[in-house]
């Protein structure tokens, strides 16, 4: 007789299954790898894992060999559809180690809570809390609540090597969505200081109830899957919730984005590309007074830059991101 641990309650294929016992089986994702405290043999970048807020938020830090001066800081939210992958997976470790080396940047890659165990907005809360924790290392009290963050201790790599005048946030896919929402929340605060130098959005995961452009309409299976994905992870939020649809009528104006510049990266064969390009156009039209750039790589699919970091297009994109972090 089957037990509740064997009986499937729901599934989101090919990503995961949920059993009646509550157990979640993740079917897709790369293996976890340890950090490289003595330096990665390929990039020379050192990495280590830390706890930010036990037990919900942790991070992997990447420190390049060029540490004789203060470095740009990138607070990074990795992708994974809000329900799979990890900041400690080989998929993201390899990519961020390369980016840290190429950009000579200190990267803080956040491990946030996943659905369905922790439906959204849990990941949004974790993203904001990790941002406040990072700000608590600055010599200035930038936000009124950043000095009262619940954290174990301040991180020496950030204190010794981070340049808060060059603070960036970014992510890929679902992580890019988190980065956008953090930047919008920063823009809505009472602080008169622009805290974030730039926001980096790689193939951002935005969606909505209406199909956008011929690309989405021409790939109904992919579009239906993205719809199912949001409904599965969102804890009941609709497809036009401003968190997932920044172009919805109820969404706050993009003019309130709290940074100086934005880079939007899209892939030519990605079902999400129309949303990324629309974000670029809408931000330009919003009245926001920063600089926004669009970088499109033709012939590539979603998350190509991390799937094969040795491909020419991946190297091209990593180089573009590194340039954005250093100008």
From TrEMBL:
Pfam families: Abhydrolase_3. InterPro entries: AB_hydrolase_3, AB_hydrolase_fold, Carboxylest/Gibb_receptor. One of its GO terms (molecular function) is hydrolase activity. Residues 74-305 form the Alpha/beta hydrolase fold-3 domain. It comes from the Eukaryota. This is Alpha/beta hydrolase fold-3 domain-containing protein. It comes from Stephania cephalantha.
């Amino acid at each position: 007789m089957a037990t509740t641990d064997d009986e499937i309650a729901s599934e989101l294929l090919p990503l995961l299954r949920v059993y009646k016992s509550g157990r979640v089986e993740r079917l897709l994702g790369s293996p976890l790898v340890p950090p490289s405290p003595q330096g990665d043999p390929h990039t020379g970048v050192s990495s280590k894992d830390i706890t930010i807020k036990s037990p919900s938020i942790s991070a992997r830090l990447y420190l390049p060999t060029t540490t004789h001066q203060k470095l740009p800081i990138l607070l990074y939210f990795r992708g994974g559809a809000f329900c799979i992958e990890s900041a400690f997976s080989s998929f993201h470790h390899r990519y961020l180690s390369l980016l840290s080396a190429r950009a000579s940047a200190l990267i803080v890659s956040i491990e946030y809570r996943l659905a369905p165990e922790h439906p959204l907005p849990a990941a949004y809360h974790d993203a904001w809390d990790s941002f406040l924790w990072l700000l608590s290392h600055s010599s200035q009290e930038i936000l009124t609540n950043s000095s009262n963050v619940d954290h174990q201790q301040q991180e020496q790599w950030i204190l010794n090597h981070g340049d808060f005048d060059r603070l960036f946030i970014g992510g890929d896919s679902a992580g890019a969505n988190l980065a956008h929402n953090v930047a919008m929340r920063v823009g809505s605060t009472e602080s008169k200081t622009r805290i974030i130098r730039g926001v980096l959005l790689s193939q951002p995961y935005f969606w909505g109830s209406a199909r956008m452009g011929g690309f989405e309409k021409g790939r109904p299976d992919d579009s239906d899957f993205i719809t199912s994905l949001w409904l599965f992870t969102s804890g009941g939020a609709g497809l036009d919730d401003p968190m997932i649809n920044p172009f919805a009528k109820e969404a706050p104006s993009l003019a309130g984005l709290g940074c100086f510049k934005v880079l939007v990266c899209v892939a030519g064969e990605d079902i999400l590309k129309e949303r990324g390009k629309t974000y670029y156009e809408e931000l330009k039209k919003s009245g926001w007074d920063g600089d926004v750039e669009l970088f499109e790589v033709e012939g590539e699919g979603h998350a190509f830059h991390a799937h094969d970091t040795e491909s020419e297009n991946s190297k091209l994109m990593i180089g573009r991101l590194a340039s954005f972090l250093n100008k």
